[in-house]
Amino acid sequence: MTDLKTTPLTGILPVAPTPFFEDGTLDLQGMKNTLDCLIDQGVDAICILANYSEQFVLSDEERRVLTKLCLEHVAGRVPVIVTISHFSTQVAIERATHAQSLGAAMLMMMPPYHGVGLVPAADGIFEHFAAVSDAISIPIMIQDAPLSGVTLPVPLLAKMAREIENVCYFKMETPFAADKLEALIAAGGSDIIGPFDGEEAVTLLADLDAGATGTMTSGMFAEKIRPIVSHYLAGDKAAALAQWQLCLPLINHENRQCGLRACKVIYKEGGVIASDHVRHPLKPMTPRTRTRLLELARDLDIMALRWGK
Length: 309
Fold this sequence. Notes:
single chain; alpha/beta; TIM Barrel; 11 helices; 4-hydroxy-tetrahydrodipicolinate synthase activity; Dihydrodipicolinate synthase family protein; Aldolase_TIM
């Protein structure tokens, strides 16, 4: 397996949705189809068990089943990033060592949080990531997202990159992400191996201008978004801009109107998965939002709409 600390990962690392049947049970064949569809889209890595995977509605046993299934099914075709976020440092360590033992190439973690009223101090956050790093040998990507309600100042992030051996990738999803990415790269220097953005690539051009080397989007249409990054990193900023402008209506609709449901709706429509079910208390997409999503996706002729047909 490639060492992603010495050979930096760049490009697009989409989050795989977790398919359920209409009764809410796991669709394991659908999970395999999802991974194959993503690989066929030409992704550079796949992230599982993230927020857009509905990690917050999965039981511990389901997480173990999915981690094993995904790593065995991908079988080294692309690196797999396993999200292990949890408020408990011990649980995060257990998830980390389990993922590494099964062949994960990287871990992704949000800072520990349990609602806005239960957030550790900066030293507790540092110690949380350090404890996980001490238990494994693969890279850690810190997910800096508003969902946690935890403020991660640039000096703290740079300190973790310098002093915690395996912390070297960052997914920046905060407001004004480009400014934060630029500041982090300046503060962390060579310890910032993988500066990435998220948010479905809605700010991707600005983030690339700031020094990002890739993006972690949903799995909806990675084959259309990946060229934005590859063109930019190859020095063709005009081509990158043109591709981003082409994709932006669908990116914006997903980011602002659909959320994690978008990828599932598209995958069901394309025969990748049997159902676009989301577990309660999440609710299905409205017909109005769904109609516009499918229209925009068909206009771009995205692969997932025809993958299973």
